[in-house]
Amino acid sequence: MGIDKQSDISANLQIGPTSLGMVRIYIEAEGVELPLDFEPEEAEEIAEELRAAAARARAATPPKKKR
């Protein structure tokens, strides 16, 4: 499955700090539990990538019609 393909899989996503000073992204879906730990600097880079992707997605989406 590629990044631009739709999926019927649903997942729960949690993000928060760990007791060891890491940032954890925790994904749970269909019996899979995936904890991903990142240094704070890596987490900031990921946040920047998310913001950039959101901006590109907004630019690619036609404006919503007003009612």
Please give a quick description of this structure:
With 67 residues, the chain is an alpha+beta fold.
What are its keywords?
single chain, 67 residues, alpha+beta, 1 helix, extended
Order of helices and strands: EEEH
What characterizes the major β-sheet?
Answer: 3 strands, antiparallel
Strand order of the largest sheet: 1-2-3
Based on CA atoms alone, the radius of gyration comes out at 16 Å
- The chain-level mean pLDDT equals 92
How far apart are the termini?
36 Å
Measured by DSSP, the beta-strand proportion falls in 25-35%
What is the domain total for the residues?
A: 1
Report on the structure:
The protein is an alpha+beta fold and 67 residues long. It has one domain. The protein is 31% helix and 30% strand. The protein has one helix at residues 40-60, and strands at 12-17, 23-29, 32-38. Strands 1-2-3 form a three-stranded antiparallel β-sheet. β2 and β3 (32-38) form a beta hairpin. The model has no long low-confidence stretch (mean pLDDT 92).
